[in-house]
Amino acid sequence: MQALRRIVRTALAAGLVTGLCFTPVLAGDFETDAGWTLEQRVDRPSYALIEPRTRNLNLDVVVLACEQAEDRRVLQLQLYLTNDGPLMPDGADATRAKSKPRAEIVIDEHVFPVGLLFAEDHVVLSDQTEAMFPRLSSRLLDALEQGTTMRLRFDLVAEPAGEPSAFDGEAVVDLQAGPAEARGKAVAAVRRCATDRAPQSVALASPSR
Fold first, then answer.
1. Which residues are 69's β-sheet partners?
2. Sheet containing 47-50, strands listed edge to edge, beginning at the edge strand earlier in sequence
3. Which of 36, 166, 171, 197 could form an S-S bond across to 48 if both were Cys, CB 3.0 to 4.6 Å?
4. CB–CB of 155/166 below 8 Å?
5. 3-state secondary structure 104-155
């Protein structure tokens, strides 16, 4: 899986910069339809990933990631793509990409408008900021941990003149997939990473690496 290899490289680079010590999950450890898959062989997982059940755009996996933000850590929802991007609906012409795309996360009946940040090799979704670093709010994280179905909705392609703005891309994630005893625990485990005291004797990574 191309996106998973990028996640491994990114996680290794972040560990060197921030002082986090972990071993990323390897491609062979990831199973589709298994629900959230936590980073392996660590006491404090720094990310969990999940594959959408359905999608109509070039989205490969969704990652809940614990990231450095100055003297603390924040949680982000990161999207890794099936190709080099940009994030677009299937069959859409990339030259028609909106200069100001929008997105929302719908978890069960709860709607969370989110901002999009296009990083070097992934897309970041967040509904709050922490010292200019994008992050997920506690309310959204609670819904992510306790919810059943998450829909990621995007307005990415410019509409013809005169037509109203509309969502054109969507991915559906089954938050209750996988073993019953593990449901919600992966999100809770990554949330604990953000409560750890961040190292202060090392250089800090930018949110977009």
1. 72
2. 37-38, 47-50, 59-69, 72-81, 123-126, 110-118, 97-107, 149-157, 169-174, 54-55
3. 36
4. yes
5. EEEECCEEEEEEEEECCCCEEEECEEECCEEECCHHHHHHHHHCCEEEEEEE
- Find out whether 48 and 28 touch, Cβ atoms under 8 Å: no
166: Cβ contacts below 8 Å, ≥ 6 apart: 155, 159
Helix count (H) and strand count (E) of the chain? 3, 12
Distance (Å, whole) CA 79 – CA 60: 7
Tens digits of per-residue pLDDT, 82-106?
999 899 999 999 999 999 999 999 9
What are the residues whose beta carbons fall under 8 Å from the beta carbon of 49, sequence distance 6 or more?
A: 4, 7, 25, 30, 36, 37, 61, 62, 63, 64
Number of Cβ within a 10 Å radius of residue 52? 21
pTM: 0.80
Q: Where are the beta strands (DSSP E) in the chain?
A: 37-38, 47-50, 54-55, 59-69, 72-81, 97-107, 110-118, 123-126, 128-130, 133-135, 149-157, 169-174
Contact call for residues 140 and 64 (beta carbons, < 8 A): no
For 35: left if phi > 0, alpha if psi spans -120 to 50, otherwise beta; the answer is: left
Residue 58, Cβ neighbours under 10 Å: how many? 19
